[in-house]
Design goal:
single chain, 273 residues, alpha+beta
């Protein structure tokens, strides 16, 4: 509740940039998932998110408008949205004039990162989220429409990152027992790339982390491309560890020898600047 109040207090803090900061609720799922899926699937205007691109495999590389690719990406983004609506906070950046949604930040506060753990169906939150999403993954429902092992490929690299995150959470780097703020998804609509939406969103996250809860205040995210890593570095995030993609998954999951992308684990203190 305190985080939601703080978010409302900074709603118009970036109006000079043409941005309005809002909390996204279940009623906003459709437009939020549209932004998240278009950001991760890629388009003629923007590169795809490398992990999702790799998981889908070479048959769908570059096919931004392929219905199967879009359906698959939308399902996973729906899961991420529902995770943070249920257990955290979803921040939207809207155009201050048109109110069009430009970016979405799915966020889990201290002590809630465990709800991003999708490694086992024995966890109660998995069943709750499954009910909220309302369907099985598209590659499970229609396997013939997807390259082989798309789901297992994504699950393999996700499980490795979750394990890394879990171990880091026990260290001072991520605040240890005091916890940290986890930016689960940062997505910008391809139509609004270059408008400063990521800066506005992550500055809002830092402000929340500074003013809500107990110290120490740390923000954490995972960059799936060098481009994004450089963007986050300019916003004060430092590399904790680089995960080398080829060391992550079973070679049996590779398609024609393709290797997963590298991922940069990054954090920053929620300082006053």
């Amino acid at each position: 509740a305190r985080a939601a109040e703080m978010l409302e207090s900074i709603r118009f803090s970036h109006k000079h940039k043409g941005h309005e900061i809002v909390r996204l609720l279940p009623a906003h799922r459709g437009e939020a998932v549209d932004v998240m899926a278009s950001s991760f699937a890629g388009s003629a205007l923007a590169d795809p998110e490398p992990i999702f691109n790799w998981a889908l495999g070479k048959p769908l590389y570059g096919k931004w408008d392929d219905p199967a690719r879009l359906r698959w990406t939308r399902w996973y983004m729906t899961w991420c949205f529902e995770t943070c609506v249920a257990y955290g906070l979803v921040i939207g950046v809207r155009d201050a004039v048109s109110s069009q949604l430009m970016s979405v930040t799915a966020l889990l506060p201290p002590g809630r990162s465990r709800f991003a753990d999708t490694r086992s169906w024995h966890k109660t939150h998995m069943w709750r989220l499954s009910a909220r999403v309302g369907s099985m993954p598209p590659d499970v429902l229609s396997p013939s429409a997807f390259p082989p092992n798309a789901g297992p490929r994504l699950e393999a690299i996700s499980a490795h990152l979750i394990s890394k995150h879990e171990k880091l959470s026990e260290t001072a780097v991520l605040g240890a027992a005091a916890g940290h703020w986890f930016v689960y998804v940062q997505a910008v609509s391809p139509s609004f790339q270059g408008r400063g939406c990521t800066r506005t969103a992550l500055e809002s996250v830092s402000k929340l982390a500074r003013e809500v809860g107990e110290a120490p205040k740390v923000c954490y995210l995972e960059a799936g491309s060098e481009r994004n890593m450089r963007v986050y570095a300019r916003l004060g995030y430092e590399i904790i560890e680089q995960v080398v993609g080829e060391s992550v998954v079973d070679p049996k999951l590779l398609i024609d020898g393709d290797t997963p992308p590298n991922v940069w684990l990054m954090a920053r203190p929620a300082s006053s600047s």
